[in-house]
Structure formats: structure tokens, C-alpha cells
Amino acid sequence: MDDNFIDEIVKEAKLGKRPAFKELCEINLKKIYNLAYRMLLTPEDATRVTSKTFIEAWENLKHLRSDQKFDSWIKSIAIHKILDEAKIGKSTKSSGKTNDDKSPNIESINTKNVFELLIMSQPKIDRIVYILHDLEDYSYRDIADFMNGLTIPQIKAIVRRTRENLVEAIKYA
Amino acid sequence: MPNEEQKILLHDYFDGLLSPEEEADFQTLLMENRSLAIELGKLKDLKRRLKNMPLSFEPPPKIINNITDKLLTLESTQKEEKSKKRSSRKNKKTEKKNRKTSSEVILNIIIIILLLALGAGGVYYFYFINKVEATWRISPISGQYKIGNNIHPLKEISEEQIFKLGKNSEAEIYINDIGTLHLKGKTVLKVISIDPDHGSISLSYGHLEYIPKPSLGQFQIVMNDLLITSKNSKFEIYSDDLGDFTIEILSNFLEIKFKEIVLRFAHDYVVKIEAGQVLKTPYSIKTSPEFIKLLNDYDYNHDTNMLLKIIDTASKNDALTLHFLLSQVDPAKRELIIDKLNTIIPLPYDVDKGKILILDKREMNKWWNEIYSDIY
What we know:
The structure holds two protein chains of two kinds.
Chain A: H1 3-14, H2 18-40, H3 43-59, H4 70-85, H5 90-95, H6 114-120, H7 124-135, H8 140-147, H9 152-172
Helix pairs in contact in A: 1-2, 2-3, 2-4, 2-7, 3-4, 7-9
Chain B: H1 4-14, H2 20-32, H3 34-51, H4 63-99, H5 103-127, H6 129-133, E1 136-142, E2 145-147, E3 156-157, E4 162-165, E5 170-175, E6 179-184, E7 187-193, E8 198-205, E9 207-212, E10 218-223, E11 226-230, E12 235-239, E13 245-249, E14 253-258, E15 261-266, E16 269-274, E17 278-279, E18 283-284, H7 289-301, H8 304-313, H9 319-326, H10 331-344, H11 353-357, H12 361-375
Parallel strand pairs in B: 8-10
Antiparallel strand pairs in B: 1-3, 1-5, 2-4, 4-7, 5-6, 6-9, 7-8, 9-12, 10-11, 11-14, 12-13, 13-16, 14-15, 16-17, 16-18
Helix pairs in contact in B: 1-3, 2-3, 7-8, 8-10, 9-10
């Protein structure tokens, strides 16, 4: 979508015009929902986090700087909300663990994409870190800031391990 | 096979984290080490698959409306708070002014007021006592409440007035001849009717429990497109941050009118309403967590396989959930539900299955009554 067009809608929304903000929601809805779904694994959690994200975006729209892109900005709000929902951040800091959960139950996930299913079957922290780095293109430094407790070497090791797991799993998919 | 050190280098190279010299060295290594080059190819393939991955999950269609509704609510709350602040500033100014008035004038006014009050009290006692009985009386338990913008709360509430209960506060509203509303925590409601036989409120958000008196009077709550009616049913209703409501029916049954359809929900059932307007499939508090999860999933994607699982795992506790689902699915699936429900609570002899298939209101009610009397 044309950046100038988006900038115009953002300007309108910052003036408090709800229809403009609704348009921004519609443009970004699927991306944010899919990000939340892939990380949290249930439609209920994804819906809740998506709603919270857009509501927080509306309340803080005045803080969006002119040099920031709306989609990157709202994505970072969503990531913080997702990590809150997944209870990641403080817990990783105190425990120092990088994988404090078991493999999730993916039977209820409704996707025909086998590769997506393989990603979603990774343990919680591995899955979230891998998606942030390899799919959403956040740097190791950015992820360390988000995860608030994992060091860069730990994050690199998680990405490495997840890539190796996925390479192995693809063979049998 | 590459060793651990080579693997780390491989991933750093893949991520573009090596310095130009390290990169050149690693490229030389790649030419010499075939297995390392194969591993690099696998990583590139992985990245390609990842970047080609479609956005396969469809958000629920109602989500945008829920968000915009919530924004409207937030906006009106903010406006209300601003107006409260303005009115509080105004009141403070008036209070200061009043303090300057001379004590002599105040004394005279007090004497006049006392005389008037004595006279009015007598008239009130003998002639208007019956009208007082027809109002809704408030009994504060803890914390604060307001009626409209009144800073000093009244003890009675009448039609068209807005009642606001503060955070961590508790109060009871006695509704003559009908019942009691027990309010817990931040709650906002507007009284629509104080008719002794037909009380009603509009609920914006909050937490309340309705305890009926054993009488024929009915109590109603209006929420957007929904009309909740309790004739003799005790129930609890509470909302969350997103404006979703949960109703727990604690005795008898509630009627919920939703888009011109009247549905009945029996006690021990939980009904959830998203954003005050989307009715989710009700479930019994006695059912299993797995069954509730299946219903939640089905509410979001209406997947046929999910419905089949619901039908397959439903037990006697879920009979009224199945009865509700009859009106939510197409005729082909309706037959599957009828067959399952028939094994739990058989169709009464005078109920025609064909009419159930077309959701005939009378036949549907007969079967509902049969299920209700069998379970309770």
C-alpha cells in the first residue's frame, strides 16, 4: 500500500477522526492477528491481544512520531501485548530459562500450511523468538529489549536451535 | 558434518553478522566443506518457505466493530470525566462564595427551612408515603456511589437517572415488589422503569447480582440489541475491560431476546456476550473444560469438524447447549444435533421432528421444557 496514502490516514486519525483509525485497523488487522495467533496459538488469545493492541494504539496515537511507520509502531505494541499475554519477560529474567514450557498442543490449529504448523509446534519461547527474528526481521538486540531478560547469545542460540529443528522436521513433513 | 563452532559461524554468516574478513574466510571454508554448504542451502530454503508463508488465519469479522465500539465507550467515559472535573471546579467556587455569606442570614434561613420541613414532613407522611414505596432505595455497603452528577448521593433513584458505583465499592438497590440488585465494584447503569411489576435498567458495564422476590413481577436489563428478562430468576452479570459480558444464571431460567429471537437459559448455565451484542454458545458450569474449549473454537470459526466433535462429546449436562445450537446451524447439521439430543432426552411423543428441523417455535419450546424438567 502507498506510504503517502497511509501517512495521510495516520494524520487524520491523529486528529481524532475515528473512521481514519478504523481504516488503519482494517489495513493492519490481518497482520497483527496472524502475528498474535502464531505466537499464542488460540483464536481467543489472538482476538483479545489484537483488540487490546488497537485500543492502546488509539490511546497513544499522539505519541507516534512523524519518522515512525504506523505498521512498525503498532506491531511493536502488539509484540509487547503478546509477550504480556504469554507471560514472557519478567519470568525469563528471574529464571534465566530459555524454554520453560512443553511443546504445545497444535491439533486445534486450523491451517493447511504444514510449515506454519511446524513453526507453531515449537516450544513457546523458541517459537516467539524465531518468528520475531526470521519472519518479522527484528534484530537480536531488538529481541533482547523485548524479552527483557534473555541475553543476545541466548537469543542467537534459540534461533539456531529452532532453525535446526525446523530443517530436521521438514524432512519428515 | 560441521562441528559446533562451524555451525555458529554458519548462522552468523547467514544473518550477515560477520566482519568482511571473517566473511571472506568463511566463504573459503564453504568451498572446502561440502556439508557446510549443504547446511547453508537448507537455511536459505527455510527462509524462502518462511517468507512465502501466507497470512492463513482469518480474524473474526466482528473484531473491528468491537474495537470501534470500545473506542466510543472510552471516548464517552473521557468526556464524562472531563465534565465531572468541570462541575467539581464549579462547585468548589460556589462553596467558597457561600462561606462568605453572613451567619445571621444563614440562621434565618435555617429557621425558615425547619418550619417548612416540619409542615412538609407532615403532609409527606400522610399523603405521599405510598409514592415513596414505589421508588428504588439504595443501601450503601462500602465505598462511594453517585446518582447523575450528584456529589452528595441520594438514597433513592428514579427513572432516567444514572447510577454509578465506584471502584472497590458495594451497594444494594431495593426494587419494590420485584427484588434486589447487589452491585459490586465499578458499575454504571441507567434506570429505565421503576414500574412495580416491570422494573428495567440499561447496563453500561460493571458487576451486579439480581435477587428476585418470590413474586410475579419481572425485571429486565437492556444491553444494545439484547433484552434480558428475569421473572423469578436469580442471576449474576459482569463485564470485563473489552466490554464483554458474562451472565451466570443462579436459579430458574432467564429469557434473552436477541435480534427478535427469544432464547431461554436455565440455571447453572453461563452465557457470554461479546461487546454487548454478540451472543456466544452457552454452556453448563457442570460441563468439562474440553467441551467449553470446543464451543469457544466453534464460536470463532464455525468449523464443521468442530461441531461434529461438540455433538460427539456432549453429555446430559450439555443438552440445553445442543438445543441452543439447533438454531445456530444449517438444516443438514441440525439433524445430527437432533439425533444426538434424542439419545440424551428423547423427543416428547407430541413433538414433530420435522417441525424441529424448521425451528418451529412451539415445538422447540416443548422440547426445551422436556429437557429442563428432565435435568432439573
